[in-house]
Amino acid sequence: MGTELSYALSKLQMLSTSDYASVVSMNIFVALLCACIVIGHLLEENRWVNESITALLIGICTGVVILLQSRGKSSHLLVFSEDLFFIYLLPPIIFNAGFQVKKKQFFVNFMTIMLFGAVGTLINCSIITFGVIQIFKRMGVGKSLEIGDYLAIGAIFAATDSVCTLQVLNQDETPLLYSLVFGEGVVNDATSVVLFNAIKSFDLNIIDHRIGLHFFGNFFYLFIASTVLGVLAGLLSAYIIKTLYIGRHSTDREVALMMLMAYLSYILAELWYLSGILTVFFCGIVMSHYTWHNVTESSRITTKHAFATLSFVLETFIFLYVGMDALDIEKWRFVSDRPKTSVAVSSVLLGLVLAGRAAFVFPLSFLSNLTKKSESEKISFSEQVIIWWAGLMRGAVSMALAYNQFTLSGHTELRTNAIMITSTITVVLVSTMVFGLMTKPLIRFLLPVSPPPKRKNSLANMESSNNPPKSITVPFLGGSQDSENELDGNEDHRPSTIRALLSTSTHNVHRLWRTFDNSIMRPVFGGRGFVPVATTSPTEGSGNIQQWH
Fold first, then answer.
1. Could you tell me which of 253, 232, 236 has the C-alpha nearest to residue 533?
2. pTM of the complete model
3. How far, CA to CA in Å, does 138 sit from each of 151, 323, 369, 418?
4. Which among 346, 268, 306, 252 is positioned nearest to 469, based on CA atoms?
5. How many Cβ atoms are within 10 Å of 197's Cβ, its own excluded?
6. Where exactly are the transmembrane stretches of this chain (predicted)?
7. d(Cα 543, Cα 549) in Å, to the nearest integer?
8. Mean per-residue pLDDT for 309-319?
9. CA pair distance 371, 366, nearest whole angstrom
10. In this predicted model, what pLDDT tens digit does every residue of 416-453 receive, in sequence order?
11. Given a cut of 60, is residue 483 above it in pLDDT?
12. Residue 467, Cβ neighbours under 10 Å: how many?
């Protein structure tokens, strides 16, 4: 009896110690987040540093302190987990990007964005895969790697870091450039994850034309099905909120329902083996177009700031997280006796990232320019260089995919796998620090910014009254409601060339969509012009009737 009691007390003490250590770790991590926000604010006007780089540097410095304090045993407060990243951290960021994107800019450049984000990612993945197969075998690194590993490496390093890129670029200074890099970043992340999952789901030891057709068929199925699921989830939320008048009793329920249905769309996509990134992104776009206009004014303000704030905190969390995990002593210990090999592999991967991106940005930009009628719509060479440069950064998506492929529950016992993990960490750090630091000066050198024209007060007042969600915390968020009048003003001209025909067809699609949206979609799902409840008390508002402006 005494032995059992002492055993129980010792177990309780161990649990208490573990819980206390977890509480201490979380306190330190939250304090570091606060420090990142404060230091980021102080460096706001710095021409080189942005908040992502600040968080990364603070994470690395913290990792060094912890490494010294633990005498080389550990360097992080939390262990990097791809499940934590994909299930909890990434969805709010991607949703907010779709929820607060300028839809007009995004869809006007949709074909170019899909060219860069989908076709470009496939080209980039192919070049990186071919390169590592040829070079790694000559270096003697890829002896234990199979064809699936090589293809996975291509998908891992084809994933750009949209979070870091969006913090570097400024939407007001370069709207076309920002729209292309932003759209490509989201589609690229989704394409890379879909491609990575498709690679893992196939037996690639035997490759023939049927496997190839099945692979690409599965890829396009995931792409389309994920988009449709996101659209349906957004429409369902709009219909429920429009029909049930949830806001007349509680605005909290409106906000909670929007958040939960957005997250539910992501979880359903993952449950059905689709792309949660694409699903939650298009769910955000549909919610901003319909659902956001169906809620009360106070709920609009709440969602606008709540989604942006959550996204901002999680972005900072990710870079802090990656910075501390970069010094994971377990992985570096495996390659400590062969540092030259690790440096060589990292250099090869960085070179392939540079070459792979150049191989599709410039040719696809040329093809895109063939479809543009006016010079202002074309992508200039300077903008092409910036698009190529801004997409060179790699981040948490590449880290998460690398951990998924080359570790088991965050641990690895194979030297080759450890080399791939440390090389991924090196590429992430170097690309974020070097390319991220130089992107702002490069933009200012290639694209001198002219002061924006002043708007008339009447136009500004009209736009502010119909604004969709807009962020005051993150520069890439927000923007006024996509002007329908701008597209309506296009006169019908008979196209005389193929280029004019393609440009005219784009405007016709916009016109057909507006007609369909106004006559069919908005009467059912609400949207701009729908007034769910008058601005009165909940009891008085219960008797009000829907109104349309």
1. 253
2. 0.80
3. 18, 32, 40, 19
4. 306
5. 18
6. 20-42, 48-68, 106-136, 148-170, 176-199, 219-241, 261-286, 306-324, 344-364, 385-406, 418-438
7. 19
8. 89
9. 9
10. 888 888 889 889 988 888 887 887 788 778 876 554 44
11. no
12. 13
